[in-house]
Amino acid sequence: MEQLLTERRNNRTKNLDQCSTIEIIQLMNEEEKTVDLAIKNQEKNIETVITEITKCLEQKGRLIYVGAGTSGRLGVLDAAECIPTFGVSKDQVIGVLAGGNKAFVEAIEGVEDDFDQGSIDLEALKISNKDIVIGIAASGRTPYVLGALNYAKEKNAQTVALACNKDSEIGRCAQLKIELDVGPEVLSGSTRLKSGTAQKKVLNMLSTISMIRIGKVYENLMVDVKATNKKLKRRAERILSTVGEISLEEAQQILSRTDYQLKLAIIMVKKNLGMTEAEQLLASANGFLRTALED
């Protein structure tokens, strides 16, 4: 364990307790620069993983994140945000956290060390060869994640390791790997810091770019947004008003007719079609709004 880069002492912060508040702020901010470099060095691997996620989603498979502690919480967070942002179902992008939902808000001792439970939790999801499972562990050696990845491989699912140490155990276990060398933490071993930042940024890329690739985005707009609250309804109205070059009042009226299905509303306005015709055109374009509008 002491050989892991994420567990080593950071020579630049050995006098952390003697620094002024502003000095610690500056140190932490400076140390975060290693995150972007670590990600840059893994861009090709990230691209490869995104390609595999896209294939999986196109085949109606699932994207499943698995992790413990901070790593697991980040996976759950990313999965949860995909639902309103991209209009996917809660069963299409899933976050699995060691210890279950309770572990999201409090630390549960020992759950990350349970290899068998990782397998059991994935078995409950009925993993198949259509799915892609991403094991997240800053250390790269968490038994719970290793158990999950091993089970996923047995079921012929695609497997990916996301770690913050090179030559990680989960990297050797998975078919694909992203290993982010962010260096020792400001606070020794506290992988919620640089490691957590790096993992979050990569997860943002994996989900966002995969969703772009399957047609969930038009230009830089979230046109499959699930308008489940007032804020998201207003966002949908602004998008329709902007793209369709109509007033917000008109946008609201049209979206009310489509039950806030934004893609349909945009096609209706831009192509001057009724809702049934817009549905048919969108279906023929496999859900890609740009393709439908250019038809």
Automatic annotation (TrEMBL):
SUPFAM superfamilies: SIS domain
Job description of the protein: Specifically catalyzes the cleavage of the D-lactyl ether substituent of MurNAc 6-phosphate, producing GlcNAc 6-phosphate and D-lactate.
NCBIfam families: N-acetylmuramic acid 6-phosphate etherase, PRK05441.1, PRK12570.1
Family, as annotated: Belongs to the GCKR-like family. MurNAc-6-P etherase subfamily.
Annotated keywords: Carbohydrate metabolism, Lyase
Catalytic activity, as annotated: N-acetyl-D-muramate 6-phosphate + H2O = N-acetyl-D-glucosamine 6-phosphate + (R)-lactate
Protein name: N-acetylmuramic acid 6-phosphate etherase
Gene this chain is encoded by: murQ_2
UniProt cross-references to InterPro entries, sorted A to Z: Etherase_MurQ, Glucokinase_regulatory_CS, MURQ/GCKR, SIS_dom, SIS_dom_sf
Annotated source species: Oceanobacillus sojae
SIS domain boundaries: 53-216
Signal peptide stretch: none
EC number: 4.2.1.126
Keyword Nucleotide-binding: no
Gene3D superfamilies assigned: 1.10.8.1080, Glucose-6-phosphate isomerase like protein, domain 1
